[in-house]
Amino acid sequence: MIVKNDPKVVNGWAFYDWANSVYNLVITSVVFPKFYLSQTEPIVTFFGREFNNVELYSYVFSASFVIVSLLVPLLSGIADYLGNKKRFMKFFCYLGAAACVSMFFFDKEHLELSMLSPFFASIGFWSSLVFYNSYLPQIATPDQHDRISAKGFSLGYIGSILLLISIIVAIKTIDLGVDANGDSLQHYITRIGFVAVGLWWAGFAQITYKRLPKNVQEKDPEKEKGYIYKGYRELNKVWKELAGQGVLKRFLLSYFIYNMGVQTIMLLAVVFADEEINWPIDELTGEPDKTGLIVSIILIQLVAVVGAFIMSRLSRRIGNIPVIQFAVLIWIGICVSAYFITEPNQFYWLAATVGFVMGGIQSMSRSTYSKMLPETKDHASYFSFFDVLEKVGLIIGPFLFGFVTGYFDGMRNAVIVLGTIFVLGFIALFFVRSSKLQAIED
Description:
The chain is built from 17 helices and 2 strands. It is mainly α and 442 residues long.
């Protein structure tokens, strides 16, 4: 039996955020997007067809979420039946870490092969989170979920900032000179940074694996028969159980909508800023100086730590759903503002606002869902359902962003589409009222 609220287990669980968040910051948010844009032309050829490079970037990530959406329900159901969710969590962790390391070999001349690295890294990261999140209701009582969830996100932001700063300092201070053709070799420092992300992720995850329990329920030999298909049956079972849980269904609908916008912005914010903001020209190089972009991303992470804890405390006063509504309202304002801004100073203020609501809305969403779950042993199946909704949103969000960018002349129009999504999510939250959640909060 698992002793809930055991500090050693809880801290070990939260530390996986420290391990994996370097992927989210370095690979999806800051370094790889800039590296990708610098290595590719505005129009690229992919399997014989021409795409806007931002459009292709969006489509690759959308495709990865298709795989995650199809794969995770199967695997999480198996994990619940066999009681070995940590084994699956490890597999996807190592898949994602290895894919990050393979980014060292990114080659724009072989783009079809090179884009497999971010594709598999995304699959590894998001799939491992399904099993990670499903541990929360089993290692802690509901009244501790907000605090522990916020702690995990905060550790993730702090750890990822440390590695990002180390990579940025290395890029700025280590001069590798030029090759025989006079081309800068500085991009190799960036490539080594991708290797560092993979090693950090897999290395620090060992602390989590050492402390989390191996099995969270007894293995049932009878249930092993045909367990591959039972994974999908478990997902179907969750769907049927939701039929009698109207409030939980409405929360999942609202989460699906607003989180589509949140995750799309987190994935593509740097790409937007890199292309749409009028960064000052460096007098020495004659190129736009985008140091401020890096600084603003670090600012986002620092503010996110504060935002996660503030929203956790605010939820104790006014409840989880009102806090999430407040955050979604701010996201609407962010999208409207992003359509108009053009200057770095404007972007810095917007980045600080994004940071404040980014950590809070993710932390609150995860803990709110865990509080609203019915009494069940199939936590991985319930969390796989939660994560499938998230991934379907991530299929649609980046795809819409890429489509609007490629066919309707620019990313600013795509930002307005995201703003509309947040408006719909905000409206949907008005229909979420839970006596169970209220009893826990009281």
